[in-house]
Design brief:
This protein is of the alpha+beta class and 295 residues long. It has two domains: 139 residues, no CATH class; 129 residues, no CATH class. The protein has eleven helices and six strands. The strands form two sheets. Strands 3-4-5-6 form a four-stranded antiparallel sheet, covered by helices on one side. A hairpin with a 4-residue loop joins strand 1 and strand 2. The protein is globular and about 55 Å long. The N terminus is likely disordered.
């Protein structure tokens, strides 16, 4: 009798888990369709009166954590932001996302997808697609679904970078993609060369950087105003989008030194904002000390 009850309990747990898996894939699929609609809708960014896609608007609000003040809708957690935007197939992230602790992980994963749909609908007034019940959602491949989402997300984040960085965009993207090998060769506009020119000429570091990058004072000041936390979170989700198998698992932000470290669990990338310009740096102390001597 006890064995029979145990088998029945196991059966219902198994069926319930499979149902949550299928429901998660269905909500994943619906969120992709909703994101696609958001991409096709232009909205006005009031702060600088520029036009951006609906998805740019949504992601920017999520990164800045100002879509909703409700605890469960908060995006203060980078894991939650990363899971919904960049790596939705990485379900191991779920246990690190606060809220909905009473739900099983896959149930929670599906619910988070649903919440994102609702926020896109409420912010942009788009209609969430009705699910096609003829589709076997349980058979959908997570990686395929995630790659479909990233095809919209990656160019969207690049557009956000272009809008907030202006003429400094190319230099920034070079640093973001740069592979550091423990040297001070930062590629392209070499930081040490710029610092040496400042030392020899007596010109301010700001003026040297503006000249090298070809930006005027107004453009330069607008980039310096970009918050450190927001930029670090944008960099984290962008790198996760580019490299989903080694997605960013942790951000370490040091506002006193204008640095952030992006950690994928194996390697770390350190970025420092110097006079409004972002540079990727070696994480070793010797290099940091040498750089500090020149600043």
């Amino acid at each position: 009798m006890k064995l029979c009850c145990l088998l029945i309990t196991y059966y219902f747990v198994l069926v319930s888990s499979e149902d949550y898996e299928a429901e998660f894939r269905k909500e994943f699929f619906r969120t992709n369709l909703t994101i696609e609609k958001a991409c096709k809708k232009n909205v006005i960014i009031v702060e600088d009166n520029s036009v951006a896609s609906g998805l740019e608007y949504i992601i920017e609000k999520m990164v800045n954590d100002d879509i909703d003040d409700h605890e469960y809708h908060s995006y203060e957690s980078f894991d939650k932001l990363n899971f919904l935007v960049a790596v939705p197939e990485q379900t191991d992230i779920i246990v690190n996302i606060p809220g909905y602790e009473h739900l099983e992980p896959m149930h929670k994963a599906g619910h988070l997808q649903y919440v994102m749909q609702q926020e896109i609908r409420n912010e942009l007034l788009v209609v969430i697609p009705i699910p096609d019940e003829s589709i076997d959602y349980g058979a959908l491949d997570l990686t395929t679904l995630a790659e479909h989402r990233r095809r919209f997300v990656e160019p969207t984040i690049k557009n956000i970078f272009k809008r907030i960085l202006g003429p400094m965009y190319d230099q920034f993207m070079m640093q973001l993609e740069l592979e550091i090998r423990g040297t001070l060769n930062f590629g392209g506009s070499n930081l040490m060369t710029i610092l040496e020119e400042r030392r020899l000429s007596g010109t301010s570091l700001e003026n040297v950087i503006r000249r090298v990058l070809g930006v005027d004072k107004k453009q330069y000041e607008s980039v310096r105003a970009v918050p450190l936390l927001g930029m670090c979170r944008f960099m984290g989700i962008y790198l996760s989008t580019r490299f989903p198998k080694s997605y960013i698992k942790n951000l370490v932000i040091d506002p006193d030194n204008n640095t952030c470290i992006l950690d994928n669990g194996t390697t770390q990338k350190k970025f420092k904002q110097i006079n409004g310009v972002w540079w990727q740096m070696s994480t070793d102390e010797r290099t940091q000390q040498l750089l500090d001597q020149h600043l």
